[in-house]
Write a structure and sequence with these properties.
0% strand, single chain, mainly alpha
């Protein structure tokens, strides 16, 4: 098997566990919805039971109030499960991206080193990878059956979980790419600003250096002139003294 196939197996395992996690979330969702419906039915039956039941308008108000409470509960369950599905999508997206990067880098290093280590790794790892993916598929099938039992009706649990996982993963991928592009643009902006500021500092240093050099040359020239004038004065005095003697 090639490194590409081995990485594909790893990706399939992560996708299978993602489907399993989504099925667990769906179990919680459909279970919460069924519990809310059961409570509504039992409450309505209790209100309408017996000769001592409240009058019709009061019964209607009580049942409506209970259904509103159940509706809030169901909305909370749906909101929580939607967020959980998004988290699963982010995890699958990052894990898949990580496997792809590792596989690409490993293949590049193996070609550069000419050690042919990936072929040996594949011969060792593929049997274990086959067992892992079979175990993951078995767990996923069990979760799909659990969703069907809790929902109380025949439903394509695996297909539903797969669609939800693909949707949440695609959303996570788009978000990751958008964040990466924004971070890249920010980094480029910082680099450009730093380069511009460095260039300004270099120009200021260059101007300061030129000014200081000019001042130094002027000072040296002035000192040389003053020294020459002093030497001439000393020479004249020496000459005058000699003539006087």
């Amino acid at each position: 098997m090639s490194q590409k196939n081995l990485s594909s197996v790893a990706t399939d395992v992560m996708a299978t566990y993602g489907v399993t996690a989504t099925n667990v979330i769906n179990t919680y969702r459909v279970g919460g919805e069924r519990i809310a419906g059961f409570v509504d039915q039992r409450f309505a039956a209790a209100v309408n039971r017996g000769a001592a039941a409240p009058r019709k308008d009061l019964r209607s108000n009580l049942i409506d109030s209970q259904q509103r409470v159940s509706g809030f509960y169901v909305k909370g369950v749906c909101f929580g499960t939607d967020r959980a599905e998004n988290v699963v999508g982010v995890a699958v997206d990052l894990a898949t991206k990580g496997v792809s990067l590792v596989a690409t880098n490993a293949d590049r290093i193996d070609r550069a080193s000419k050690l042919n280590a990936l072929a040996k790794l594949n011969r060792v790892a593929m049997p274990v990878a086959d067992l892992v993916i079979k175990a993951a598929e078995h767990i996923e099938e069990g979760r799909s059956e659990l969703v069907k039992r809790i929902s109380g009706k025949a439903m394509p649990a695996k297909a539903l979980a797969t669609r939800k996982l693909k949707a949440s993963t695609a959303k996570a991928t788009a978000t990751r790419k958008r964040v990466t592009k924004a971070a890249t643009r920010k980094a480029e902006s910082i680099v450009n600003e730093t380069a511009a500021e460095t260039s300004k500092v270099a120009r200021r240093v260059n101007r300061t250096t030129r000014t200081t050099g000019k001042q130094l040359l002027t000072a040296v020239a002035d000192t040389a002139t003053e020294t020459s004038n002093a030497a001439r004065r000393v020479a004249r005095k020496a000459k005058a003294t000699a003539e006087a003697v």
